[in-house]
Amino acid sequence: DATLSLTLLDDADIAALNGEYLDRDGPTDVIAFALHDPGESPLGDVYVGV
User: Fold this and answer.
1) How far apart are CA 8 and CA 36, in angstroms?
2) Residue numbers of the domain that contains 41
3) CA dihedral of residues 3, 31, 49, 44 (deg, nearest 10)
4) Cα–Cα separations (whole angstroms), residue 50 to 1, 25, 31, 35
5) CA distances, 6 to each of 16, 26 (Å)
6) Contact, 46 vs 6, CB < 8 A?
7) Residue 38 — φ and ψ, nearest 5°?
8) Vertex 42 angle, CA 4 and 32, to 5°
9) In the prediction, which pLDDT does 41 show?
10) Splitting the chain (50 residues) into consecutive groups of 10 residues, what average pLDDT does each group show?
């Protein structure tokens, strides 16, 4: 078994994450962050622009 965090964000919020963590301007469809070594749980965080 494995777990991950899934968060739905509007354009403004995902654009803020995109700028802060990836140094890119504007919204994007998906941003994912791995939280561990392969084979361990939780897998990470997934942010989806809606």
Assistant:
1) 22
2) 5-49
3) 10
4) 27, 17, 12, 23
5) 17, 20
6) yes
7) -55, 140
8) 50
9) 73
10) 90 98 97 81 90
This prediction's pTM: 0.84
pLDDT score recorded for residue 4: 87
Q: Which two tokens stand for residue 35?
A: 């939280």
Q: For residue 13, what are its two tokens?
A: 């919020």
**Chain position carrying tokens 């939280």:** 35
Instruction: Determine what percent of the chain falls in helix, strand and coil, rounding each to the nearest 5.
Output: 25, 30, 45
Number of domains in the chain: 1
- 38: left (phi > 0), else alpha (psi -120 to 50), else beta? beta
